[in-house]
Write a structure and sequence with these properties.
There is one protein chain. The chain is an alpha+beta fold. The chain has a single domain (about 35-160), classed as Alpha-D-Glucose-1,6-Bisphosphate, Chain A, domain 4. Helix content is about 35%, strand content about 25%. It contains three helices and six strands. The chain has helices at about 5-30, 75-85, 145-160; strands spanning about 50-55, 65-70, 90-100, 100-110, 115-125, 130-140. Strands 1, 2, 3, 4, 5 and 6 form a six-stranded antiparallel β-sheet that branches. Strand 3 and strand 4 form a beta hairpin. The longest helix has 28 residues, at about 5-30. The chain starts with a helix and ends in an 8-residue tail after the last helix.
């Protein structure tokens, strides 16, 4: 099949005219489908193909039920997560509760159409270690096309690389 230059121009113009409407509809869906709370989700049961997690009930990620960091602090984990957020221009923190435990909710939007994905973190002390759970889930659609699993692995690698050992968990 031969594609003419004029058909490329016509379809390109149609896309440019429809793009704002598509993005607007996606933004409305992002608001309508936002999670009911900022608490760490218990599982991916309601979204089998658009959710990945390293936590109790692991799903579609590395198979780990937790990330454990020896002889480190929750502050060190928090700093590594903040570094990841600062390097992702489409990531926005929407909730943080730090104390004896840390709960964090971040919204990450996709590049082209701005679909919203929710990323939740939970960190707590277990003796001198910090135990971290990560959950990433798409708000819309029936599949995430593997994006959440890739994000979980990227976050896992970032935490492993940037977490400073040397202080007992606090």
């Amino acid at each position: 099949m031969r594609v003419s230059r004029s058909s490329v121009v016509v379809y390109g113009a149609i896309f440019l005219l429809l793009y704002p409407s598509i993005v607007g509809a996606v933004q409305i869906a992002n608001v309508v489908n936002q999670p009911e709370s900022d608490e760490f989700p218990t599982s991916c049961d309601d979204s089998l193909y658009k959710c990945s997690r390293i936590a109790p009930n692991p799903h579609r990620s590395t198979g780990e039920s937790e990330l454990r960091f020896s002889n480190t602090s929750i502050l060190s984990i928090s700093n590594a997560i903040d570094s990841w957020i600062s390097e992702n221009s489409l990531a926005k923190e929407v909730y943080r509760n730090e104390g004896v435990e840390m709960e964090l909710h971040i919204v990450v939007k996709t590049n082209l159409i701005r679909f919203a994905d929710d990323v939740f973190f939970h960190a707590e002390c277990d003796g001198q270690d910090v135990v971290v759970w990560v959950h990433s889930e798409s708000r819309s659609g029936i599949s995430d096309v593997g994006v959440n699993g890739e994000r979980i692995e990227e976050i896992r690698d970032r935490l492993i690389e940037n977490t400073v050992a040397g202080n007992a968990c606090s």
